Amino acid sequence: MDTQSRMALAADKLECAELVARMARAIDRRDAALLASLFHPDATDDHGLFSGTATEFVAWVMPLLATMKQTQHVIGQSLIAVEGDRAVGESYFIAHHTLAGPDGDLFMVAAGRYLDTFERRDGVWKGLHRHAVYDWNRTGPSTDNFDRADPGPMAFGRADSEDLSYAYFQAIGAA
Known about the structure:
Blueprint: H1 3-28, H2 32-37, E1 39-46, E2 51-53, H3 54-66, E3 68-83, E4 86-101, E5 104-121, E6 124-141, H4 164-170
Parallel strand pairs: 1-6
Antiparallel strand pairs: 1-2, 3-4, 4-5, 5-6
């Protein structure tokens, strides 16, 4: 493979990997518009508890996320294979969630892999199908002891567009 072909392949893989990162960001910031924009109109999603169109997934997951005090998806290694205008990927994830429990907050961690199919249409890569595969989880009492009511000089993440990351990206005209 010549250098130009290798560079094009690397660019395609990077665009697909960025889609995975943007999907995690959209979930953690509860940004329905961003999440929906990352999928083609005919895309599908299978998260086990949900299976249907990507549009239906966005409508399903946003109210579910509203029940959680905090979420954070950490994306690990990603393997992405590209063949023309189609690509498949396996991206490891660890999803942290703080949930209200009957006797105090619970901390739930789920780990697994996203099996994604991406497709380039009109020069733009987007998700065509996502299948979440779960490897393990753990739930226990939350030990978070930050004083969020009086944080002092500390900044805390927010699950909306008031999160500081939005201002950082907007400062250079990026979404």
